[in-house]
Amino acid sequence: MRKAFLSLLTLFLPFLTIAQEAAEKGLDERINDWFMPIATWWEGFVLTTVPLGEYDVPFVVILLVTGATFFTIYFKFPSILKFPLAINTVRGKYDEIDHHEAVTSSADTTGLTVDGDVIGTIRDESQEGEVSHFQALATAVSGTVGLGNIAGVAVAIALGGPGATFWMIVCGLIGMATKFVECTLGVKYRDVGADGTVYGGPMYYLSKGLKERGFSGLGKILGALFAILCVGASFGGGNAFQSNQATVQLSSLMGLEGGATGVIIGIILAVLVGIVIIGGIKRIASITEKIVPFMAGIYVLAALVIIFANFSYVDDAFGLIFNGAFTPMAGLGGLVGVLIVGFQRAAFSNEAGAGSAAIAHSAVKTKYPASEGVVALLEPFIDTVVICTMTALVIIFFNIDADNLQSVFTYGSVDGSSVILNGSGEALGGVDLTSRAFDSVIPGFSYVLTIAIVLFAFSTMISWSYYGLQSWKYLFGKGKRADLIYKCLFLVFVVIGAAATLDAVIKFSDAMILALVFPNMIGLFFLFPKVREEMAKYLDAIKGIKGK
């Protein structure tokens, strides 16, 4: 391992010098200016709108919402009815059905079968995996829980008012069904190498699943397209953007400026990320299963402190959320406008339909694909229904002046992301608004929030490194050389993101995350009947152990 890490460090050191020179000479700004038209076109293409009444709605949002609604109805509201099953599965209650003992009897078993398998050829399929249900969930959650929960919610409320929160919750609940479908398929169609390494995700269920349905050519095209987009997303939205935001927060907190500061922070982040990703999914899972509960715990605990400190306003806050969802305040664009804002921010936050989480869930140790599908149900619930809602409540409480019973700011964004504080005229948006809201009750929490942001960014980077690597291997082979090249490039982008202000590149790459929706959702619409079959198998197995 030490040799591999030194090789990585030696390979990307020259690129660190380039990153520093770019930051000092303003090369990043020139690249940004040149690339911005391309990035703007790409973002506009991915977010192509269609008219819906008086509004222009991004088609990708319509695809996500309609798909999630369909899956929710088809699978009989799994977000509610399968929730207890998901909890029991992730805590290991049904682990025994994932194991069966090898046949060691010397008796003649020719022709005898167990569950359709010929005795003597049975293998323990639960060993075809690398991580536990909880580790897979933690890895996937770490890839989605992040700045979208801190900054994205603030943007949604600034633009759509408290009512946007209601539609975020609704989108999170129906998105649970989409996660169930894509993660079940991820396990069903995964590949397992001779050494036990698992290769899975949408690129595999698109190519293998559609081939089963007689659409081999379409499956290959969609699988390759998804892999290309996922690699791009891993370098940008899943990496450079994360390291950039972590650096901005740290630099602001410490009062540091200059390109050299970004390079130093970037190198430190790259070394830490490199140590983790060299170990593969097992190392990533072992780290995320510790970081995710810790960072989520800090954030949720602080939110709960504020909620209890404003307990008398809880009913007022939920009243604003519910009333604002159906009777929006003047100037917020009406019901459909608030609904769109809420759905869009939730979809961007939990990535249900993008298929990225299926890559992490594919590595689970199980012989029942649907077992991991139900575990994946919990991901949008944790991300959107719990953490995003808590963030929203903190901001709503901040806007209630307890002494004068007046608002601190007026809902309805001026520039698309910020609100203006009454009296001072100060503009707050994104993470700044969330930070100020927490600080209003817990003085100095901005320091803790900075730590949370850095941890969110770090866990997101290591999760996306795995997503990108799996896609890279799908495109370029599963050899050690391809593995090393990708990891080197990924670490370089950690430093570039921290040192430079390549807004256009990050904008371009971030849009790739949303672009994943198109090939992935096409596959889900073809393959969802397979999920029903797998769910029936899993439920039958559970009934079997209950009947003992």
UniProtKB/TrEMBL annotation:
Keyword tRNA-binding: no
Gene3D superfamilies from the UniProt entry: Amino acid/polyamine transporter I
InterPro entries (alphabetical): Na/Ala_symport
Record GO cellular component, one term: plasma membrane
First and last residue of the signal peptide: 1-19
Keyword field: Cell membrane, Membrane, Signal, Symport, Transmembrane, Transmembrane helix, Transport
Keyword Transmembrane attributed: yes
Main location (coarse class): membrane
Membrane topology: Multi-pass membrane protein
Compartments in which it is found: Cell membrane
GO MF, any single term: amino acid:sodium symporter activity
Family that this chain belongs to: Belongs to the alanine or glycine:cation symporter (AGCS) (TC 2.A.25) family.
Name under which the protein is recorded: Alanine glycine permease
Annotated source species: Aureitalea marina
Lineage: Bacteria, Pseudomonadati, Bacteroidota, Flavobacteriia, Flavobacteriales
